[in-house]
Amino acid sequence: MSQKTIWEIQYLGLCINEFARKFRLTPQLAHNYLKKYNGLKFLQDNYEAEHTLALSDTINSLQKICANNGGTL
Questions:
Q1: In terms of pTM, does the model score above 0.70?
Q2: pLDDT per residue over 32-63, tens digit each?
Q3: Residue 28 CB coordination number (10 Å)
Q4: Is residue 66 classed exposed, middle or buried when 0-12, 13-18 and 19+ CB atoms within 10 A define those classes?
Q5: Which of 16, 17, 37, 51 could cross-link to 71 by cystine, CB 3.0-4.6 Å?
Q6: Is 29:17 a contact under the CB 8 Å cutoff?
Q7: H helices, E strands: number in the chain
Q8: Residue 53 — left, alpha, or beta (φ > 0 → left; ψ -120 to 50 → alpha)?
Q9: What does the alpha-carbon distance between residue 64 and residue 73 come to, in Å, rounded to a whole number?
């Protein structure tokens, strides 16, 4: 596994955990929610830009992406 892949996996985990904390979810529920409403796809597709931003900005973006895809948090 490449170093870049490891960093991406760590970043996804960080975002899931922070999203869970913000919305008082378990990490598993946050993962399921982000997967269902395309938040994880957004992070994977936009990793190069998103990982350079403040984590709070990324979490806010995730909330908006999920809301645009039917999420209600």
A1: yes
A2: 999 999 999 999 999 999 999 999 999 999 99
A3: 10
A4: buried
A5: 37
A6: no
A7: 5, 0
A8: beta
A9: 9
